[in-house]
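Sample intake sheet
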Amino acid sequence: MKNWKKVYEDGSPVRAEIVKGVLEDCGIKAVILNKKESVYQIHGQYEVMVSVTEALKAINIIKNEISF
């Protein structure tokens, strides 16, 4: 994962999927990394990761085009 950068994190898998979908619609390959603990799903986050070369573009898209 050293060529990937976290551009978004949230406790909601739905929000992470929305962000991933918007980024992919803009031509940026994104993946979701599930950092939730596996037993009770109380602690942890879902992280949206993109290539380090696309990170700045992805952050700008998230900041300017997505609101929850």
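Comment: The beta strands are 4-10, 30-34, 46-51. The chain has one domain: 4-53.
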